[in-house]
């Protein structure tokens, strides 16, 4: 009887965990471009707009799937990082979901569990579908601010798993040698630390140096890759930033900042500032994950040598209320002001 | 023996199917819902004086609840820091509403927008989520009692 019982337990554990749906596409496309969406859904992402409640990661997922269906000459890989639960208290339930679209068709949907707090499992799946071969690639990350300090809890269902800017940047490098564009739909990651970490791993970055209302960077302008496969990455990045900025400006009362960063140009002058910023942070303890940035150029550690705006373009609208409501200018660089 | 195995199977089924952290986010959601109901009340009210009163008293109530929770010895040091950050954010909003501490008072025709601003600032910074579930539950309970 004990034997049957053991078999039953194993069946529950293993049958319940493995779900892969693969379909053979009608037309397998050698993708002209690859879009990688990483959507962090393990941080309680809800918000209200006009009294209606939204689940931010689900909104981002719908956007990504829509891109997957419209990318007729490209491929779209979506990693939805849902909260990780345990089966029978111990066994990972594989709550994360991977979607692979090729030529506008969903060719695979697989559940998986993370290996660590970073993107190692996601880059493994990326490598398995041999997606690194297309000429152009864009990575989009939707989530809360990626912190400088790995001790701050990022994954709510797995508080022991660390995630920070360096882990993110290292893991981005595991997907492919270089991305044309990295889009960060997160708060406060338009920072010297993030730009430095992604230098050499992406040509351009779109990010917000300040708080960004949840899930609101819009990626639909990536369809420019369908309309004109040779579209310049600078134009693509700028179009995404402008579209997101216009939409956000019309719907929120809080400050809106969306920046475009040419990481090759910013690397010419950023290193010294990034080191100064890291030294400043190392002397201070950030108490909570969600602390809004300030303009780096207003912080004492910068001194009189302000960070250049070369290679950056910031779309900025001050908040309608609050201490910074009358702010006329904001640099593209956001830093933590920690007392 | 059969009964024992049957009981074990039932336990296993329960463990396998129960959402272990199903309640984990409910307290945070309740707090966000509470803030949303304040915004709705403000927007449904005609009189600017009444709108201002709703906002002022609601912000005071939440601040009072945060103070009461922070006094509890069971609340962790980390949570006390998070409560303090949340309280600072709310106090700033109340100062602006009433035009104190260097602020001009929010105009009568701006109160709906201001209510949206308060909600958006809280939700985008996710001040609510940084607080632990137990502490968030305590805040809700105290808000209900006030």
Any key phrases for this structure?
heterodimer; A: 339 residues; alpha/beta; 10-stranded mixed β-sheet; two-stranded antiparallel ribbon; 8 helices; B: 146 residues; mainly alpha; 0% strand; globular
Describe the sheet with the most strands of chain B: none
Tell me the count of domains of chain A.
1
Strand order of the largest sheet of chain A: 1-9-8-5-2-10-11-12-13-15
Main sheet makeup of chain A: 10 strands, mixed
Strand runs of chain A, count:
16
- The SSE string of chain A, one letter per element, is HEEEEHEEEEEHEHEHEHHEHEEE
Instruction: Specify the number of helices of chain A.
Output: 8
Characterise the protein shown here:
The complex is a heterodimer of chains A (339) and B (146). With 339 residues, chain A is of the alpha/beta class. Chain A has one domain. Chain A has helices at 2-15, 56-70, 120-128, 165-175, 192-198, 224-227, 233-251, 263-282; strands spanning 20-22, 33-40, 46-49, 52-55, 75-81, 86-87, 91-92, 96-102, 105-112, 136-142, 179-185, 202-207, 256-262, 293-295, 312-317, 334-336. Chain A has a ten-stranded mixed β-sheet, sandwiched between helices. A two-stranded antiparallel ribbon of chain A has the order 3-4. The longest helix of chain A is centred in the C-terminal third of the chain and has 20 residues, at 263-282. Chain B has one domain. Helices cover 75% and strands 0% of the residues of chain B. In chain B, helix 2 runs antiparallel to helix 3 (48-71), helix 2 packs across helix 6 and helix 3 (48-71) crosses helix 6. Mean pLDDT of chain B is 83; it is low at 10-22. Chain B is globular. Classes of the chains: A alpha/beta (339), B mainly alpha (146).
Quick recap of the structure?
The complex is a heterodimer of chains A (339) and B (146). With 339 residues, chain A is of the alpha/beta class.
Helix and strand topology:
The complex is a heterodimer of chains A (339) and B (146).
Chain A: H1 2-15, E1 20-22, E2 33-40, E3 46-49, E4 52-55, H2 56-70, E5 75-81, E6 86-87, E7 91-92, E8 96-102, E9 105-112, H3 120-128, E10 136-142, H4 165-175, E11 179-185, H5 192-198, E12 202-207, H6 224-227, H7 233-251, E13 256-262, H8 263-282, E14 293-295, E15 312-317, E16 334-336
Parallel strand pairs in A: 2-5, 2-10, 10-11, 11-12
Antiparallel strand pairs in A: 1-9, 3-4, 5-8, 6-7, 8-9, 12-13, 13-15, 14-16
Chain B: H1 2-17, H2 26-44, H3 48-71, H4 77-98, H5 111-125, H6 133-145
Helix pairs in contact in B: 2-3, 2-5, 2-6, 3-4, 3-6, 4-5
């Amino acid at each position: 009887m004990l034997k049957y019982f053991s078999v039953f337990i194993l069946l529950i554990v293993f049958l319940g965990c493995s779900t892969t749906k693969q379909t053979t596409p009608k037309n397998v496309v050698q993708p002209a471009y690859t879009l990688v969406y990483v959507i962090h859904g393990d941080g309680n992402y809800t918000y209200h707009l006009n009294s209606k409640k939204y689940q931010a990661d689900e909104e981002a997922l719908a956007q990504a799937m829509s891109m997957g269906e419209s990318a007729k000459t490209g491929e779209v890989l979506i990693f939805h990082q849902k909260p990780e639960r345990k089966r029978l208290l111990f066994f990972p339930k594989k709550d994360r979901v991977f979607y692979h679209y090729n030529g506008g068709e969903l060719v695979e949907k697989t559940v998986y569990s993370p290996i660590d707090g970073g993107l190692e499992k996601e880059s493994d799946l990326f490598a398995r579908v041999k997606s690194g071969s297309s000429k152009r690639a864009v990575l989009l990350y939707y989530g809360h601010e990626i912190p400088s300090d790995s001790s701050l809890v990022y994954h709510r269902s797995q508080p022991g798993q660390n995630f920070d800017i360096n882990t993110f940047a290292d893991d981005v490098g595991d997907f492919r040698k270089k991305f044309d564009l990295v889009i960060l739909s997160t708060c406060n990651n338009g920072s010297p630390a993030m730009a430095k970490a992604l230098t050499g791993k992406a040509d351009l970055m779109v990010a917000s140096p300040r708080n960004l209302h949840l899930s609101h960077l819009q990626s639909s302008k990536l369809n420019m890759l369908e309309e004109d496969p040779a579209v310049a990455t600078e134009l693509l990045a700028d179009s995404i930033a402008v579209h997101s900025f216009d939409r956000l400006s019309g719907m929120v009362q809080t400050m809106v900042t969306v920046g475009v960063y040419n990481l090759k140009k910013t690397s010419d002058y950023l290193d010294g500032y990034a080191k100064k910023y890291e030294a400043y942070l190392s002397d201070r303890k950030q108490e909570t994950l969600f602390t809004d940035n300030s303009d780096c150029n207003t912080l004492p550690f910068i001194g009189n040598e302000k960070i250049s705006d070369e290679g950056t373009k910031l779309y900025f609208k001050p908040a309608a209320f609050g201490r910074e409501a009358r702010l006329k200018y904001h640099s593209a660089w956001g830093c933590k002001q920690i007392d | 023996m059969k009964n024992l195995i049957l009981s074990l199977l039932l336990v296993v089924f329960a463990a396998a199917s129960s959402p272990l952290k199903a309640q984990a986010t409910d307290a945070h959601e309740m707090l966000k819902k509470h803030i949303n109901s304040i915004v709705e009340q403000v927007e449904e009210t005609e009189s600017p004086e009444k709108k201002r009163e709703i906002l002022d008293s609601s912000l005071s109530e939440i601040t009072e609840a945060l103070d009461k929770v922070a006094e509890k010895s069971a609340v962790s040091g980390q949570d006390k820091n998070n409560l303090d950050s949340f309280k600072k954010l709310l106090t700033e909003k109340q100062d602006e509403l009433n035009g104190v501490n260097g602020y001009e008072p929010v105009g009568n025709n701006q109160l709906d927008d201001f209510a949206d601003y308060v909600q958006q600032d809280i939700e985008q910074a996710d001040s609510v989520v940084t607080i632990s579930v137990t502490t968030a539950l305590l805040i809700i309970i105290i808000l209900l009692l006030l």
